[in-house]
């Protein structure tokens, strides 16, 4: 959630003061809330979903986390995960347990604006849940993560034929004996390719730039070793492929013909 300006006519709504206002009940927000709670600080945590860790209740779609083990996912002040730490469902349960006893307002959308510096210079947080409420906060921490869904450009011809990562089926049987092209070459793309590797007849990953491997960049959001199996099948001369192609939606089209989808781009025609 980005910081946005907000102008609302709230009548006689009186702002409630909090020293710390936190937004997002994921691992980061929960960790800070727990530290503030045990330090006896005046805080409140806003979460728009009905429970903590809502992101992990859906992502990653194939339910295997990037972490190599439960110790890497353990939050301060909480025991190690009792089951395999790379399982997303187990991590959701872990976060829900971690949030017990904390001052969290669920199903509450929070919008932040900065008050004019008239001495205090506090932040104003307006929440929308069961009712509209205003908070005056000395410190605001937005802990909503970095993930923003990448959706197809609606101006691309055939964009409506694409399946998005957030809505695609995850049962490998749905891709039996099918040729699949995945646009993008990040961690989610390789995770998706691995999920259908045993059933699809062919999987192509097409990205605008070279594949970034976490072992090289030391960034956990890049392609992890446990998900790069498609690179092995590509190197072993199978039908799978990893392609670097700077296509643009302006000269790219997806066409449905004779029961198949064709990915059309003049730049691809030039190269292949």
Note the topology:
Elements: E1 16-23, H1 27-38, E2 43-46, H2 70-73, H3 88-98, E3 104-105, E4 109-114, E5 123-128, E6 132-142, E7 179-183, H4 187-196, E8 202-207, H5 214-217, H6 229-235, E9 241-244, E10 253-257, E11 260-264, H7 266-271
Parallel strand pairs: 1-2, 1-6, 2-3, 7-8, 8-9
Antiparallel strand pairs: 4-5, 5-6, 10-11
Give a verbal description of the structure:
- This protein has 272 residues and is of the alpha/beta class.
- Helices cover 20% and strands 23% of the residues.
- The protein has seven helices and eleven strands.
- It has helices at 27-38, 70-73, 88-98, 187-196, 214-217, 229-235, 266-271, and strands at 16-23, 43-46, 104-105, 109-114, 123-128, 132-142, 179-183, 202-207, 241-244, 253-257, 260-264.
- The strands form three sheets. A six-stranded mixed β-sheet has the order 3-2-1-6-5-4, covered by helices on one side. The chain has a three-stranded parallel β-sheet with strand order 7-8-9, with helices on one face.
- The longest helix has 12 residues, at 27-38.
């Amino acid at each position: 959630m980005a910081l946005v300006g907000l102008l609302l006519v709230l009548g006689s709504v009186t702002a409630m003061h909090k020293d710390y206002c936190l937004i997002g009940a994921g691992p980061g927000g929960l960790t800070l809330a727990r530290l503030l709670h045990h330090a006896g600080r005046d805080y409140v945590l806003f979460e728009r979903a009905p429970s903590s860790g809502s992101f992990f209740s859906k992502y990653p779609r194939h339910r295997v986390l990037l972490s190599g083990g439960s110790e890497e996912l353990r939050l301060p002040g909480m025991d190690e995960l009792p089951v395999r730490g790379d399982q997303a469902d187990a991590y959701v349960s872990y976060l829900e347990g971690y949030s017990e006893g904390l001052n969290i307002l669920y199903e509450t959308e929070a919008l932040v604006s900065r008050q004019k510096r008239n001495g205090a210079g506090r932040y104003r947080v307006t929440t929308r849940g069961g009712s509209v409420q205003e908070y005056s906060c000395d410190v605001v921490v937005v802990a909503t993560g970095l993930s923003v869904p990448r959706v197809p450009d609606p101006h691309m011809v055939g964009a409506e034929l694409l399946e998005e990562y957030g809505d695609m089926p995850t049962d490998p049987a749905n891709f039996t004996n099918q040729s699949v092209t995945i646009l993008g070459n990040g961690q989610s793309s390789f995770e998706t390719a691995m999920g259908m590797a045993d059933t699809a007849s062919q999987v192509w990953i097409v990205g605008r730039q070279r594949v970034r491997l976490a072992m090289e960049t030391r960034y956990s959001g890049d392609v992890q070793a446990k998900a790069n199996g498609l690179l092995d099948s590509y190197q072993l001369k199978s039908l799978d492929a990893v392609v670097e192609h700077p296509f643009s939606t302006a000269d790219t089209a997806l066409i449905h013909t004779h029961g198949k989808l064709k990915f059309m781009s003049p730049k691809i025609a030039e190269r292949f």
